[in-house]
Amino acid sequence: MALITCPDCGASISDKAPACLKCGYPVKAEEPIHLHAPAIPSRAQVSGSAHENRNDRGKVYTTQRTGKDVKIMSLFGWTSLFVAAIIFFNGTPDMFIISLLIGVGLLILSRIISWWKYS
User: SS3 of 7, please?
Assistant: First the structure.
């Protein structure tokens, strides 16, 4: 068993691990399906940002298909919308509109990037 470096976060992980333990990045290619193995869903059959697979013991593990850049952008979008809600009740209308547009724009952009890069 050798240690390899995760391409997403740089952590040292086992070469036998299906995904990075730190960030969830899938590092092991899916193995071919044998006649007696449980069926693994294809990427088209799985919806959302998580992908479920079964290992050789039938145990289900989940790996994230989106990278850190999309997650951080989405976090900033939600934070900006939260700030916009606070400004709506306590601040000026132009600051509310600016914060609302930034939040909605970041959320839409993160969804487009997620769709473009990971599906």
Answer: coil
22 plus 61 within the same structural domain? yes
Closest CA to 21 of 35, 31, 34, 10: 10
Determine the Cα–Cα distance for residues 7 and 119; give it in Å rounded to an integer: 19
Q: Dump the DSSP string for 16-77.
A: T-SB-TTT--B-SPPPPPPTTSPPPPPTTT--SSEEEEE-TTS-EEEEE-S-HHHHHHHHHH
Same domain? 33 vs 73: no
Q: Which residue has the tokens 């959302």?
A: 48
Q: Is the pLDDT of residue 44 over 80?
A: no
* Band of residue 49 on the pLDDT scale cut at 50, 70, 90: very low
pLDDT of res. 67 = 79
Domain with 94 in it = 68-118
